[in-house]
Structure formats: structure tokens, C-alpha cells
């Protein structure tokens, strides 16, 4: 089971309930993917990139059985009921009408230039779009271009942010562990009712996810609160097409599970199986679509 209350390991306030689908096992599972050659995530068929809107659940026949196994496993193992949790990434983009605002938690004493911050924002958007490309035009998904914006940075000292910071909010708050934290008053995790009245700048300045970039952090973690990966790994991968650990953790933000103790029938290489693939595969994409198909009907989001 991967759904738990956010633990002290993540240094997030225990007063707010949250979803943390990854766990410490991520750290040991990534070596294979880190050294693996990158392979194509798409075949030559057209069903995975629909030219027009589709409705209903119609995965390729060779994926239907393992996809059902995965969904049934999620229904049976997610604590407190899969549908009862109301802060998946899906809920966040519905609340913002198709946007994700990100605040970076820079857990480092290394200075970061304005150009690097621009690269970070570009990379985060690019990785999220690799997931969202599976949803655009599929089964009444209401958005054709989800905007992913880095709106703030939390740092130990504002002097670490070199160059102009006029386009972002700078936070020097810390959590209970002394780790730089974007202001709780502005965070979706802490205000799932959408009340950002205590946030300077109000709702327009809120953030939905935190991206933790932590010195010396091995592997990754992910949940409704955002993602956490190693600073050195991420900054060294800014020009990489698929930042595979981040892609995996983004999958958790949208509810996708880990596969530490089992694998679906006939499927052994996909981004959510840590260490087996460096790219989002067709199976990953259809798992994401399965979530939209089921959750959108449960939530009443189908138009």
C-alpha cells in the first residue's frame, strides 16, 4: 500500500492530511534506469495520440488485462478509499481550471542564477507535458494546454537567488525541520478549501505543488504535495529530454502507484516501475487515462 499520511520524513505539517504514494524504496530502485539507454516511449500506431476527442474506455487489447489488474489493486489497497481523497493532481487542475503553480524548495546553500531558474521552470513544464499529452483530446478531458508555472522559490537566504527575482515570490520561511518552505498560507496542500486569504497576493499567488530540490537526496518521493528529488541530479539533467525520476514522482501526484512487490501481467518496463524505464511508456499513459476515466465519472467531471 502506498497511500499514507505524509510522514515526518517529508517534513510537511502533520496537521494537514495528504497523499504520499512513494516511499524510501525509491532510493534503491533507480540505479537501473539511471544507467539504462533511453528508448522510444511510443510505437507507430495512432491510438495513443488521438486526432479527435474520444469517449469511453478503449485501451489496446494487449494492455486491457494488466490495466484492470492495476486499477483493481489501487481500489483494494489505497487507504481511506481511493475516491475519498480529494487532493490528487486531478483535483488541483480542476480547481485552477487547467493550471499548476509550482513553488521550488531549494534545500541547498548553492547559489542559483536567474538563467538556471528559467531552465528549471522550462524543465518542470516539459516533464509535466509528457504526462498531459496523454490526456489532451481524450475522453472529454477539458483542457488542451495545462499551464505549469513556477511562481515561487523558498531558500535559506534570499542572496542565493542571483539576478532579478521580479517574476517570482521569494520565501525564506522554514518548516519544523528548518528546511526552506514556501509559505503555508499560499499552499494548496494546507488550504484545500481554496481559501488563500492569508496569502500575500491572494489566490493568484498560491502554489499547488512544491518541488523539493535537496542536496544529496537519493531517489525520489512524490504525492499530492508535489515531488522531491536530488538537487544535483535534477540540475544536471535540465537539458535531458526525460528526467525520469521526476516523471515517476509526477505520476504519484496524479495518483499512480508504485510496483515494488508485484508487476501486472506481461508488463515489465514502464516509468512507474522504478528502475525499469527512463521514459513514459504506452502502459504508463494508459494508466493515467484510466485514472481520468474513473475519477472524472466519480467526481461528475464528464461534460
TrEMBL record:
Residues 41-60 are annotated as: Disordered. Keywords: Signal. Residues 1-18 form the signal peptide. It comes from the Eukaryota. PANTHER family: CELLULOSE-BINDING FAMILY II PROTEIN (PTHR35606). This is Cellulose-binding family II protein.
